[in-house]
Amino acid sequence: MKRLLFFICLLMSFVMNAQKHDLPKNPKVGEVYGRFEIEGKDPIWLRVLEATPKRVTKTQKQLIDLGYTLKVTGNLDKATEAALLEFNKKEINIVCAGVITEKTVPILKKRLKELKREKKKTLKNY
Question: Average pLDDT for residues 75-88, to the nearest whole number?
């Protein structure tokens, strides 16, 4: 009887702790999510975008335009991961993410627009 009671208590503790797991809000079937540490804040869940050659090539070109040193290969190689790691840390405060996330893409676009505006202002001043 004591063993049964002990087993039930042990089982209940596992069941209760299972409800405490931090999971992404409204995850979509077939999508990949990562839990990322953000400096000074609680970790967040972000959708990790598939590293297709087309997406990686576009991201590599955008990173090069922003001044990162890498080659356009279409592969998520070490240089691209390092550039993404630096970009994500600088722009989103994600501590370790050498991947393309749902937040990486819009911020890349925003930084490129800002860079183009600055270049236009500089050209107008000459």
Answer: 92
